[in-house]
Amino acid sequence: MAMSKPLIASLLLISLLLLHLVEADHELKGNAIYQAPAYPPTQKIDCDGACKGRCRLTKRKDLCKRLCGSCCGRCNCVPPGTSGNYDACYCYAHLTTPDGRRKCP
C-alpha cells in the first residue's frame, strides 16, 4: 500500500513546523535569564526608607532621595548599599535620562 505524494508532503511540512516551534521555545527559555521579570513583586516596598539608606552618604541628599524615590516608585525595588549593586534590581539599573545616563543613584 503506497502513500500518496500529497500525504507525504503534508507530513513532512508538519514535522518541520513542529521542529521550528520546539527550537523557538528552547531559544526563548535560554534567554530568560537576561530578561526583566514578567511581573512586578506583589508587595510594595517602603521607598522612603530604602532611599534614605541608599542616599545616606551622599552630599546632595535631597536630590538623591528625589531621584531614588522616582526610580523606586516605578520599579518597586532599590539596590542594597549606598552605591552600585545594580544587578540586584534590573529595572532600577536600566532607567536612563534623555541623554542616556543612568537616572537612578
Helix/strand/pairing class, anyone? Answer: mainly alpha
- Shape estimate: rod-shaped
Helix content: 40-55%
The strand count comes to 0
Radius of gyration over all CA atoms, rounded: 24 Å
What can be said about the biggest beta sheet? none
Give the N-to-C terminal Cα separation.
74 Å
Unreliable stretches covering 5 or more consecutive residues: none
Proportion of β residues? under 5%
Count every helix, treating DSSP H or I runs of 4 or more residues as helices.
4
Mean pLDDT: 83
What is the string of SSEs from the N terminus onward? HHHH
Could you characterize what this model shows?
The protein is mainly alpha-helical and 105 residues long. The chain has 4 helices and no strands. The chain has helices at 5-30, 47-54, 61-75, 90-93.
Label this structure with key terms:
105 residues, rod-shaped, 0% strand, mainly alpha
